[in-house]
Structure to design on (550 residues):
RNA sequence: GGGUCCGUGGCCUAGUUUGGAUAAGGCACCGUCCUUCUAAGUCGGUGAUCGGGGGUUCAAAUCCCCCCGGGCCCGCCA
């Protein structure tokens, strides 16, 4: 959890014992520019006691050392915090523990499962939203104070990967097992599945061997998956996405967990021939075992979740909206039928679609993430080449690389996961306005200021409204982290970064830092330094790096 | 067909959970500012029946109902 001085608590406390007790949650952060906090009092404003209540309340509030203003305006009580209090709150935290807001290590261990794409080909833009949201959410929860691990559940036991293995074996047995060659076999076996006798004839025997289990075969297929997985992992690393653990499905085929799952479900399991399923309250049959005795993905996934529940307190799964109903069933079976008492949460996101057409791995109608990164890198180089500054080749390449990575991540994470996205190159490449470079650029200017400004030991703590506005935005960082964690919305951090950047740009254009007055210079330099630390911190939550120069 | 999510200026996005002050940013377009710390920037302007219709309320982008449009799900695939 976060530890910081929340002024709302004190404001609310000022009403204790009075006719109208204000709760901290009644003290809202103003978004319309009237004040810092607002309390809505429409309901009480026309009561005969309201006048005397307000005068007592406002007097109590005004006597608090951090209050600059507290007044009634129509249906609202507008409250402002003094710049000095914001400044000292943030600075004190940074001076003592190095960051604002401070984190109190939460004992809860969290596992965020994300990506988990079938290792049957390179990752594409439709999938990458999962990885970007998942990685960002893991970083945000970690910043909040949880002990977070990320996991990728690797499907190395399903029909798709068997087709990957079988396709290569049948059609290109002599070619090297590269991602490209494996893909060729995969696509060929699916295109010829009918003439080969159908899925059951082609993959059925392999499925059977998994149940025996034929460990040599399982090892072999796992090896094939690993080849594709390594390329996916490399792509993800280019976007600063590092997954802590890759957990293989094959590890749950015969293990203790799957035995336990079936044991716990014994009373709930129903039969249809030799097949086994459970009923959900909403009338769906969820099958765990086929009539030929082989197990379905759900069985292995339940085992995997029991494994996660054994090691973690909170389980977060990042899933596409196509898995929404599946997730509901999974949670029902785990929590209500098996009795897992750990918190299980799903972060469901809508798909990224291509304009006019669908993303389909089978049809080869995809834009790979590698393509996206490469093109973003080229765009960034073009833009840099058009700038006036002098850049060495290495500097230029590094800036382009970071801008490209940040842009790809930012342009995807900034949209509410719930909202569908249509992929357009011009949006993905956006570097003006609400974009990653907009944020990065402001940071670089701040760095430049700190480099060029003569230090000052003096601090005059008279903040003007622009400085105050920036401080207020810095202070809101804590609130945004909390809201982002509570609502599982990494996009809120993106929104926060844009607001913070706008506040700094305002400060930059109105407040000259490098001035003769030692007190003013000291104060503004300190504000600039605090801003740069917060923006770097917040950008990090989205896996973005900021650059000293660009 | 049933379920579910989405629909906000020409385009993209925030605001919807918890109803309240002039619906907020960005792109594009028009104009402003480089002899003040980086112009990937700043300031200003044009532009919105908040998909449509009803309802609840003193008050609706926000809650309820119906309709329209789109995504996704409705496998003994994963």
């Amino acid at each position: 959890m976060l530890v910081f001085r929340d002024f709302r608590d004190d404001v609310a406390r000022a009403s204790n014992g009075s006719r109208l007790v204000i709760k901290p949650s009644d003290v809202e952060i103003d978004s319309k520019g009237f004040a810092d906090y607002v309390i809505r009092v429409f309901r009480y404003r026309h009561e005969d006691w309201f006048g005397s209540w307000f005068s007592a309340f406002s007097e109590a509030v005004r006597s608090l050392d951090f209050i600059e203003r507290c007044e009634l305006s129509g249906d609202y009580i507008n409250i402002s915090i003094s710049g000095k209090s914001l400044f000292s709150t943030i600075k004190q935290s940074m001076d003592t523990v190095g960051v604002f807001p401070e984190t109190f290590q939460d004992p809860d261990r969290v596992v965020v499962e994300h990506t988990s794409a079938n290792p049957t080909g390179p990752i594409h833009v439709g999938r990458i939203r999962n990885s970007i949201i998942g990685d960002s959410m893991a970083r945000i929860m970690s910043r909040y104070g949880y002990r977070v691990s990320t996991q990728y559940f690797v499907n190395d036991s399903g029909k798709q990967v068997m087709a990957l293995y079988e396709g290569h074996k049948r059609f290109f047995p002599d070619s090297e097992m590269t991602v490209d060659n494996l893909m060729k076999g995969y696509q060929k076996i699916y295109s010829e599945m009918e003439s080969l006798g159908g899925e059951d004839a082609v993959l059925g025997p392999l499925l059977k061997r998994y149940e025996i289990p034929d460990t040599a075969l399982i090892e072999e297929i796992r090896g094939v998956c690993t080849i594709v997985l390594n390329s996916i992992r490399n792509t993800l690393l280019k976007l600063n996405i590092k997954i802590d653990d890759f957990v293989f499905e094959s590890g749950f085929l015969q293990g203790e967990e799957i035995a336990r799952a079936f044991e716990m479900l014994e009373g709930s399991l129903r039969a249809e021939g030799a097949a086994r399923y459970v009923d959900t309250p909403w009338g769906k049959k969820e099958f765990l075992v086929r009539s030929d005795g082989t197990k379905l993905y759900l069985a292995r996934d339940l085992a995997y979740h029991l494994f996660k529940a054994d090691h973690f307190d909170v389980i977060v799964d990042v899933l596409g909206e196509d898995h929404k109903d599946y997730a509901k069933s999974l949670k029902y079976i785990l929590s209500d039928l098996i009795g897992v008492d750990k918190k299980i949460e799903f972060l469901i996101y809508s798909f990224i679609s291509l304009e006019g057409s669908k993303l389909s791995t089978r049809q080869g109608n995809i834009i790979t993430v590698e393509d996206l990164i490469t093109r973003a890198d080229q765009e960034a180089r073009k833009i840099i080449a058009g700038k006036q500054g002098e850049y060495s080749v290495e500097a230029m390449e590094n800036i382009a690389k970071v801008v490209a990575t940040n842009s790809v991540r930012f342009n995807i994470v900034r949209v509410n996961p719930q909202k569908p996205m249509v992929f357009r190159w011009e949006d993905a490449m956006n570097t003006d306005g609400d974009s990653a470079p907009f944020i990065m650029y402001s940071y670089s200017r701040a760095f430049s200021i700190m480099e060029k400004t003569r230090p000052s030991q003096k601090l005059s703590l008279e903040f003007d409204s622009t400085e105050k506005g920036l401080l207020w935005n810095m202070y809101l960082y804590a609130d945004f982290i909390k809201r982002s964690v509570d609502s599982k919305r990494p996009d809120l951090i993106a929104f926060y970064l844009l607001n913070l950047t706008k506040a700094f740009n305002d400060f930059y254009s109105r407040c000259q830092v490098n001035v003769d007055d030692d007190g003013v210079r000291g104060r503004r330099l300190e504000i600039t330094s605090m801003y740069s630390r917060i923006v770097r911190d917040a950008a990090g939550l989205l896996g973005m790096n900021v650059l000293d120069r660009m």
